[in-house]
Design goal:
By secondary structure, the protein is an alpha+beta fold. It is built from four helices and eight strands. Strands 1, 2, 3, 4, 5, 6, 7 and 8 form an eight-stranded antiparallel β-sheet that branches. The chain starts with a strand and ends with a helix.
Length: 135
Amino acid sequence: MFTLQQIVDAPPTEVVRAFTEPEPFAAWFVAEGFSTPSDRVTLDVRPGGQISAVFVAADGTEVPFTLRFGDLDLPHHLVLHFDQPAEEITVDLTALADGRTRLDYRSVGLSDEQQVPIEPGVATMLGHLAAYFTQ
């Protein structure tokens, strides 16, 4: 298990778009050396609905991926499920007095060995998410 926190310069109603709309999702959900084209992202925003997208490298290599939505209480709470490796992600969005949002990210289910390379990548992704809302 690991937890991360990110402050985002937008209210929860805007930040939740990073999980529910293709363009903001594609801007932050990237892996090192890859982009995620927004036209290759589909989101079925409902419990059990699927997120399907593709990481694309500069050399054209494509890595498709999917995850599923779990519990949703938008814009404050959402759960995501990866099957490979098995991971449950809980995201809580809390409005701050200054119009910003505290994003609390919690991952459970990964082995210690799986977590080592994933946690810093997620921290980078959350930085991209915050940067999207300051553009």
